[in-house]
Amino acid sequence: LKEDASCGELRPCSGKSTTVQIGGRLAEMPSPLERPDALEILSAHRFAHIAVASNSGPHVTLAAYVVSSGHLWFAASRKTVKVKAIRRNPAICVLVGGGERGLVIAGHAQVISGWGAEDLANLLANAVGSGRAAAAFALRHAGLLARSTRDFVEGGRLPTDRVLVRLTPTRGIITTGGQVTGGWGRWRRST
Question: Which position among 8, 80, 96, 122 has the lowest Cβ density within 10 Å, counted as fewest Cβ atoms?
Answer without folding.
Answer: 8
